[in-house]
């Protein structure tokens, strides 16, 4: 049986988060809700221009907004996920 793990405390700033991580034993906390995050480091040297039905673009924008990211980044993430090797 797995031991009960504590939820992470609310952290309101980067400085607060850094101080917490520096001092805390993270094995005591439930990190199961974490998702991998990709940082966009590679420069964007090419562009894509395409025509779409307005309803499709509206749906993409709505999904991006629900995810809390700009729609162009959302489209890039969809493309990256489609061409990435499956693990």
Give a quick rundown of the structure.
One of its GO terms (biological process) is regulation of DNA-templated transcription. The protein is an all-alpha fold and 87 residues long. The chain is built from three helices and no strands.
Give an overview of the whole structure.
With 87 residues, the chain is mostly helical. The chain contains three helices and no strands. Helix 2 packs across helix 3. The protein starts with 13 loop residues before the first helix and ends with a helix. Pfam families: CopG_antitoxin. InterPro entries: CopG_antitoxin (IPR022148), Ribbon_hlx_hlx (IPR010985).
Quick tags:
2 domains; CopG_antitoxin; 3 helices; mainly alpha; 87 residues; single chain; elongated; Ribbon_hlx_hlx
* Average predicted confidence as pLDDT: 87
Q: What multimeric state do the chains show? A: single chain
| Distance linking N and C termini | 28 Å
Q: Major β-sheet, in short?
A: none
Using the alpha-carbon principal axes, give the shape. Answer: elongated
Topology, element by element:
Blueprint: H1 14-23, H2 54-67, H3 71-83
Helix pairs in contact: 2-3
Pfam family, one: CopG_antitoxin
